[in-house]
Design goal:
Two copies of one chain form a homodimer. With 105 residues, chain A is mainly beta. Helix content of chain A is 13%, strand content 40%. The longest helix of chain A has 10 residues, at 32-41.
Chain lengths: 105, 105
């Protein structure tokens, strides 16, 4: 599977969803190494585009994301992580990063 | 808000979530024009990276995504669309694109 995902792609977006509430918590990017570390350790690892380094989410805040399920989409270029978050997922202290509402129909 | 999202960014990922079930259905990319058309028409528009053109999801299949809410994340570089899907969201006929399960803890 890893070769299908990272075939010619350096980074793929990974959506993080709370397994209990189904709330979408955040989106970050994975490279091959962060994907492997996520499978190996059971917590979410990403690649920070701004800092250009591997990042174990929670390594400084303690707010780790514990993996329950992982899936990719139909064309293997997006990852969905279903997790149990320890504490708020957002660095602002919000449970989810998606708190900037634009419109409501 | 549109200037915060597309400030120096051509495309941003847009996560599509079913408003009723909270299932994550798909991820596609928006440029400024597809974002504007989404707000204007109430159905999801994207920019296809492979075809390099605007794309009103459902325009050929009839499986439109009707927008209920839109939010961005804390740093304005990801969009979350909460929708009512008409029919399957995935071109394979699956309700969600995320059917390739990788692991279960």
């Amino acid at each position: 599977m890893i070769d299908k995902i990272f075939n010619g792609r350096e980074l793929v977006p990974a959506i993080v969803q709370d397994s209990d509430t189904n709330e979408v918590l955040m989106l970050a990017y994975m490279n091959r190494e962060s994907y492997s570390l996520t499978l190996k350790t059971g917590t979410a690892w990403f690649f920070s585009r701004s800092r250009q380094k591997l990042w174990n989410k929670g390594e400084t805040s303690g707010n780790f994301l514990y993996i329950n399920d992982i899936a990719t989409d139909c064309d293997y270029d997006t990852i969905l992580l279903r997790v149990t978050p320890k504490g708020p997922a957002c660095h602002t202290g919000s449970r989810s990063c998606f708190f900037n509402k634009i419109t409501k129909a």
